[in-house]
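[09:14] KT: can someone run the structure on this one? pasting the chain below
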Amino acid sequence: MRNIRPGIHSVCIACFGLLAGCAVGPDYKRPEVPVPEKFKELEGWSKAMPADAAPKGDWWTGFHDDLLDRLEPMVAVSNLTVRQSYANYQQALAQVQVARSELFPTLGLTGSASRSGGPGNSASAAASSVTGRGSVVSAGSLELSAGWTLDLWGQVRRLVEENSATAQADEATLANATLSEQILLATTVIDLRASDASIALQERAVEAYRESLRVVQAQGSAGITATPPSAVISAQVALETAQATLTGMGVARAQYAHAIAVLVGKNPEELDIPRSTAMPTLPDVPIGLPSALLQRRPDIAAAERAMQAQNAAIGVAVAAYYPTISLSAAGGFSQSPLDGLLRASNRIWSIGASGTENIVDFGYRSGEVLSARAAYEASVASYRGTVLTAFESVENDLSGLRILAQEAEQLEIAVRDANRASEIALQEYQAGTVDYTTVAVALETQIGDQQTQLTVEQNRLLDAVSLIGDLGGGWSDSQLHDMHHQPASTPEKTQVGS
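[09:31] RB: done, structure tokens below
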């Protein structure tokens, strides 16, 4: 046994040298995508402060809302969509480990022992006939075996590359799921705040209609002006309609609160959100260059990693054209009888090699290669489409913020004038110079303009949240773990699965 060890050692060195050789199939290169030098909507678009002052990781703090600050960190831990993506990522990590294990030999240990008895023609058999017992024979073996399928053509290495890229894609998908759910939570909180503000606005409208009714009734009772019964009825209907509208607003408010609870992984009854009329602050959002989206958007990173995985799958398919070569070796002891098993005279060993190659497969392997190449081309189209959609989304957000800012300025003037018009109409009605219709129209215009102003403020906040999400939040593809040459490990985000 000792004299064959140098030979096996040399074979192992030679095999490792072969494994370091080339792998069949195309090496991955990221396809080019057209990237503009700047965003179209940035012309004339200015930020309130330098981008360095804007929040990047905890981007929601820029809205200065206590509810957002309290709930957003819970999304990464308790949101069920995020937990599902985390489990998928952990499964992908395990597949990397499985693929990498195929690069190394398998070792096995086998031991056996047996006792058997029966008549025989030896002296022991004769002695046993005197005692009336048959002969007993014991035997045993202990063997260490090793098997190794050589990755001469890089099929396993391509499989490791494919699974590693898939795991990185799942990691980016996890980041994208987290960001998407955090964006959804922010938009839902903004909708809730806007709902609270609308309820407060409607409560003021109810009070205004109640005061209008009181004035109409007082005018008729005092006989100061000729107040027809229709004016009293009209004021009464306006008040009742406003009260019904106020009651109906509670439905949307309750639904927003329930949605927020689910987004942070709680039952609706577990989360109580008090009413607040304070709207979040419109934050400053750092824009950067369009090319930065390729690194800052986790969905783009996921599409790009999926592209590399499909490229590696081509190499796995191409490697099937080449023969499979395996090495085997075994050594140990075998003895009958069992006594004295571990002696040099009882040593056994074997070494061997085998190779297999399909001669005719009626197009199976060529079909697999064509399928892998087609899947890669599809992933390239998906990647480029994801990039173009990202540019479109950012442009939409920027245009929305720009146009809504102009509308907000115009509405501020309109609301101020509507408030003044409503006051004047009521005074003129009390003086008897106009009828109640003028008061009703002025009051309706005032309330409508105030509601439109609130809606524009809400939409500006929603566009700001959308812009943060479309810019990738505070994420960067440098956060992806390199799993191609390192052992699979659980990243720091394990808190998601806790």
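[09:33] KT: thanks! The chain is about 60% helix and 10% strand.
[09:34] RB: yep, looked fine to me
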